Amino acid sequence: MKSIYQILLTCFIFAGIVACENETKVCDQTLRNDYHTHLMRKLNDRLSDTVMPKVTAYAFGRDSIYRSQALGDLFFQLSPIADSSLFYLKVDSSFVPDTLKIRYTRQQHFISPGCGFGTYFNIDTVITTMHTIDSVVINNKSVTSSNDTHLTLYFFFD
Amino acid sequence: MTRILLCISFLTSILLSVAATAQNKPATVKTDTLPKTVKADTTHKALADTAKAAVLAHKDSSWFIPGGVRIGVDLSRIVSAIYYPYRKEVTVVADARINSNLYVAFEGGYANTPYSDTNYTYKGNGMFVTLGVDYNFLKRQYVSEKNMFYTGFRYGFSHFNYSVPTYSIKNTYWGDNLSGSVPKTAVNAHWVELLVGLKVEVLKNLFMGWNIRERILVNSVKTDNITPLVIPGFGSGSKRSAFDVQYTISYVIPFYRVKEHAPNKEEKKKKIPKR
Question: For residue B88, what are the β-bridge partners?
Fold first, then answer.
């Protein structure tokens, strides 16, 4: 009989530990939902992932996001208070820079008790200049996480 | 501070378990008045008559066991309110014996959920009720024993409302702080729960006990805007299932008795050894 009580007591202690979880203390989900842009290049009639040697990017009127960095993927933070964001993009120091205008709708979203609120974006249109960029493909319109690739930029030069 | 409180709650549960073991002492039989009722049963008189009558009398024999309504409160909510300042809850528990091992059980309460941090403020409140049955597995050592080792089932319902008066979304790159609010929303939640636990008579008609329980939410309470922080009586609003412990102190009002019949067992015939 005593052993039954000991087993039950162990269960109770274990249950007490499991039940003690304060969700408001921990932000267990990523808050980043940057606009993930992938770079691709046509080389010898073959499309392939590329790393641009000196990428510089920033939103107009804001600080630099990247400054002469070798990159194959770019992550742009979209403005949570406007319905569009305009970015400057130069993939190499010798190339002519392009501008990238992203239009979207916004939705405030409760992420978790620990993280609070965030903004989800739904991409409407992407408009670019074509100085260096050849074409763009919207891969995913819903921007809820930085893990997905949302946009691919194609560069056709040797 | 919270760790200390947790330790205190665990130590108290250890004391309770010891109290539960102590209840096995047969001393309580002496104070019990019920065996008198058994003596008063007229069917037992027939036992002295004939062997045939004795068999019939055994089938009909019955006696009264203590019944009553047990009302109490869940003490674990006090610890819970200290550990989770945003969960202020009062839970009243009650059960009533309907036969020797079966109890109809009721729980009800009120919860208030005030929460505030740098990202948002939250206000919620609501009531809840659960209704179900408990089945006692503990084999009684004397007729009037009221200790329980039980398992139970509950259906739970909660009506509550919540709102987010203010929230802000910070963006380090754009330097913008977006603020907003979520209006008051009323929600109903339904769930089922399974539990197992102990109730021990520590003083006459005064019980202490604990149980562990798993709750499973039947309907979804999430919306696109927000998930409620707490569902009163259930627990976390962001989960479909919740594990919880209860630690109760309760008192039985013994205003009725339950008639119990003797188990219908045929007496084994005595074997006469062959010579």
Answer: B112
B180 assigned to some structural domain: yes
Minimum-distance CB partner of B244 among A19, A77, A109: A19
Residue A106 CB-density burial (10 A; 0-12 exposed, 13-18 middle, 19+ buried): middle
Contacts of B244 in chain A (CB under 8 A): 15, 19
Q: Is residue B270 part of a domain?
A: no
Cα of B103 to nearest chain A Cα, Å? 21
DSSP tag of B151: E
Q: What is the ipTM of this complex?
A: 0.74
**Within the 108-147 window of chain B, which residues sit less than 8 Å (CB to CB) from chain A?**
115, 117, 119-120
A chain contacts of residue B175, beta-carbon cutoff 8 Å: 62
Helices in chain B by DSSP H: which ranges?
2-22, 28-31, 34-40, 51-60, 76-83
Of B162, B173, B176, B215, which to mutate for an interface test with A (greatest number of A Cβ within 10 Å)?
B173
Q: Identify the CATH number of the domain in which residue B231 sits.
A: 2.40.160.20
Per-residue exposure over B168-186, b if at least 16 CB sit within 10 Å of its own CB, e if not: ebbbebbeeebeeebeebe
Nearest CB neighbour to A62, from listed B24, B174, B243: B174
Number of domains comprising chain B: 1
Tell me whether residues A113 and B229 touch, CB distance under 8 A. Answer: yes
Q: Which residues contact B266 (CB under 8 A, 6 or more apart)?
A: none
Q: Is the Cβ pair A23, B20 closer than 8 Å?
A: no
Please give the helix or strand (H or E) that residue A155 lies within, else none: strand A151-155
Does some domain include residue B169? Answer: yes
Output the tens digit of pLDDT for each of chain B's 275 residues. Answer: 444 444 444 445 554 444 444 444 444 444 444 444 444 445 444 444 444 444 444 556 888 888 889 999 999 998 888 888 888 999 999 999 998 889 999 999 999 999 998 889 999 999 999 999 999 998 888 878 888 999 999 999 999 999 999 999 888 888 878 888 999 999 999 999 999 999 999 999 999 999 999 999 999 888 777 889 999 999 888 889 999 999 999 999 988 888 888 776 655 555 666 66
B152 token code pair: 């139970």
Q: Determine the distance in angstroms separating the CA of B106 from the nearest CA of chain A, rounded to an integer.
A: 22
Q: How far is CA B94 from the centre of its chain?
A: 8
Cβ–Cβ < 8 Å for B201, B23: yes
Cβ distance B178 to A119 less than 8 Å, yes or no, reads: yes
